[in-house]
Design a protein that fits this description.
Four copies of one chain form a homotetramer. By secondary structure, the first copy, chain A, is of the alpha/beta class. Chain A has two domains: 8-88, ACT domain (Alpha-Beta Plaits); 93-287, Formyl transferase, N-terminal domain (Rossmann fold), CATH 3.40.50. The first copy, chain A, has eight helices and 13 strands. The first copy, chain A, has a seven-stranded mixed β-sheet with strand order 7-6-5-8-9-10-11. In chain A, strand 5 (93-99), helix 3 and strand 6 form a beta-alpha-beta unit. The longest helix of chain A has 24 residues, at 251-274. The relative contact order of chain A is 0.13.
Chain lengths: 289, 289, 289, 289
Amino acid sequence: MVDTISFMHGTLLFWCPDRPGIVSAVSGHLYANGCTILHADQYSDPDTGLFYQRIAFESGDEAPDRDELTEGFAALAATQELDWRLSWSDQPKRVALLVSRQDHCLWDILLRRRWGELPCEIACVISNHEVTKDVAATFDVPFHVLPVDDGNRAEQEGRITELLAREQIQLGILARYMQILSPEFIEAAPCPLINIHHSFLPAFSGARPYHQARQRGVKFVGATAHYVTSELDAGPIIAQDVIRCSHLDSVEDLTCKGRDVERLVLARAVRWHLEDRILPGPGRVVVFE
Amino acid sequence: MVDTISFMHGTLLFWCPDRPGIVSAVSGHLYANGCTILHADQYSDPDTGLFYQRIAFESGDEAPDRDELTEGFAALAATQELDWRLSWSDQPKRVALLVSRQDHCLWDILLRRRWGELPCEIACVISNHEVTKDVAATFDVPFHVLPVDDGNRAEQEGRITELLAREQIQLGILARYMQILSPEFIEAAPCPLINIHHSFLPAFSGARPYHQARQRGVKFVGATAHYVTSELDAGPIIAQDVIRCSHLDSVEDLTCKGRDVERLVLARAVRWHLEDRILPGPGRVVVFE
Amino acid sequence: MVDTISFMHGTLLFWCPDRPGIVSAVSGHLYANGCTILHADQYSDPDTGLFYQRIAFESGDEAPDRDELTEGFAALAATQELDWRLSWSDQPKRVALLVSRQDHCLWDILLRRRWGELPCEIACVISNHEVTKDVAATFDVPFHVLPVDDGNRAEQEGRITELLAREQIQLGILARYMQILSPEFIEAAPCPLINIHHSFLPAFSGARPYHQARQRGVKFVGATAHYVTSELDAGPIIAQDVIRCSHLDSVEDLTCKGRDVERLVLARAVRWHLEDRILPGPGRVVVFE
Amino acid sequence: MVDTISFMHGTLLFWCPDRPGIVSAVSGHLYANGCTILHADQYSDPDTGLFYQRIAFESGDEAPDRDELTEGFAALAATQELDWRLSWSDQPKRVALLVSRQDHCLWDILLRRRWGELPCEIACVISNHEVTKDVAATFDVPFHVLPVDDGNRAEQEGRITELLAREQIQLGILARYMQILSPEFIEAAPCPLINIHHSFLPAFSGARPYHQARQRGVKFVGATAHYVTSELDAGPIIAQDVIRCSHLDSVEDLTCKGRDVERLVLARAVRWHLEDRILPGPGRVVVFE
């Protein structure tokens, strides 16, 4: 994939055991290759000894083309023993939305995309129900209905995997997809998956969280966006937020507040992923907001 | 206890199964007895069918004296089958503070008392260590040190109970008292106890919550103030709050943010109790802020 | 308007100079007329000496019909010199949305209506531009385009007034309507108007608030929902909220955060109005959340 | 000042017009001089074209001594045309607290210092009143009373300046110092000054802000910490925060909430200054939290 425009905006993520000279080596390499650093964030984790950096850069007229830059960086990474990821702003990620009956997160992501808040292409909506078909149609997004019941679970998951692969999806968003995905599916998924959890993890992780919250008299409802791992609802937390509540809030009021906070938190997590602001660590992620 | 001043400010709390006519009966009784309602809050819980009301009132020149008012209200409560509590603003509650080594909540309560934020008399500070003696002395509050170890736990708790009784304490504040109190002590305590929990319940309820929070990558630290019941850390929640954090926060930073939120939350809960804003319900409390 | 169903949910708002016996008189009247109080809030303003109450009630089988109840209450209000308003939950308010080019508040109100969060009928969308026509069509809401320029302002405003009257609108929502309305229009409007102000009043009240905020280095962006009065942006505040920001936020980021907080704040204010939770006071309003 | 310990923690702040190669030049220089970057933050302001960086570093065994490092960096800064500041963690800044009658911010700073939250030496408390003398004594901090009235203002300010200079104060904290300082004093002050403003700037900047806030019906009270410049209350904002309020809050309640938010905001700003997290920009500052 040869790039012919003269300015390219790239984002480089890398992580490695911390040691002297990494920042100097990488920034020196970029400078030597005609790239200007626009923004950089770094973090050295005192608990694990790992170093994380995100560099947004611009390559100028004299910079090598995209392939050459990538190869050059691969060579550096090999020498310095870095894990890394490189992306380009003119290649927005392809995204699939997975939903069930509730549509508030679906609307929210589609609207934010339209308003220019989310740099991505929404390739399709996948659902186990027909009900959100019109929402997808409003935004001219292809809609795939893949019903599921106890008899066809493995087969339905297989069709989702196939669809994600065929559409070259780079991020799957579980926008209130109310089916528990099998570890096999999660292992096989060709892209990372972000889920919105209807509660403030680690709390009230079972069913009917707003009923539980109300019975316990809590003063906040929350939501948590996290990457999906094969351990249910235990994947790395990306974003969380809370809304104040009181005994005056009925379960309906809490549900309504829940919708607000779920939308905000999911959108925030998706945006950070799309802008390559999230780096993987052991058990948790580092987010450069 | 005869009251001779002509104006008295009282606060009446009552709760009962909801049914028509309660508000009318109680407000009519107060009006007929020369009392003016200054402020009233009420709540009918759709889940339990219970009704809760708090009425702050002023008794004028023609009102009966305090004893007579109390008797009159007792008679009404018997007729209407109400649970109730009546208090007077010129009789601030007597409070004891229980602490261990950490002093941030202790300072905060003592300072707020001095600034006029907390309508109470701080009768004494009780600690299992000597270290906060000077803090108590700064505010001329009697200090009792009652060391505890595995060998003398029951005896030490007995001495605390005795002290609370002798000092006629009406509220015990566990301002970072780091001993687990026995169910026997809690049963026998002559006053309600408010505890500040160094976490956002129900979450990270074990040891070293800030380490747990950091490892899990949570985005908020919180604190919870609750009444003490014999089930550890499961008493009714009174107040909660949170402070935003990120991967940048070290355990020391989280601890520091924890101190801030603990102080705010404990002070809020104590104030609500002292102002008779909290009514007991099944499993949780109703707070009229 | 005769009501034939046996249970009616009503909301009574009243306000008057405070004096003894009001609560007793009103609650006694409701009880005597077969009505059960479901929820009540009251507030006595120490600054102005005014008393405010909101009572949600249910009329049972033996209650008089709606007309009779209303007449009875009118008589009581005359005796007690109360200002008052009475509404019924089976008569949701008719609402008009006024918008210009930006559609985020429009989508938000329409979606929340669909999700059952806002008890109202959305009678029409009125705009000075064509661009949001499809949004209205998505929800099958009539759309009226009334272009405006310096030459036809009075005439255009006249047509809006006429439309509001003809459609029997009870609340006009300025959902990012970017025209300054004349005092004459505001005086003549047949319904209250709620505006969402793209800033945290009283601050940055002029143009380009996010540029101003950024240049001043503020740490929060906010939004304010208020009733429209003839004094520009000085009407009583109904709801406000803020979102944290930093020097890292570009004007685009602040605008995006602004959209989030504008949607939340406008929806909250509209809901409170529709649920009859707002009582008028001198210079400000009392909101029983 | 020769440093003899083998490890030194330093913090380097620099800012300059942005151009390619700065990060590479500075990080390369540190690496070449035996220094390891512990943490770095940088920001390129798209509005002004200015670049800001903060680097926390550790110098190892083979690094030159502190003087040599400083000279080396001065030479680099001259070549690269950087503005810069360099500080060492074993040289905590000397601080003076200026107060009047209200003591809540004074207590808060003194307590946080004791708890290890603020890396500084509190050299003295300066007041125009006697009343906080005992507070200073509690922490064994020298107390200077310098009364002021309209007749001796210039002279009193002169004595403050002299005191700040003699005590080699590096930061003056106006912890509710209720005198308007003259532009002459501010110009002549030998150290930066941080003020806590009892309101959410730019709003209610005059007297009795909580009365104003209450009359306007605002939903939040706030506080702003800023550097003092000769233009009253218009210096660069460092930190802000808000606390939710409602019509239920009396002026006393708002004042109490104000104390809470003032303490939090002032402490945060002071901490950021002491940790060298604040870089000066045109009209505002950049804070690397």
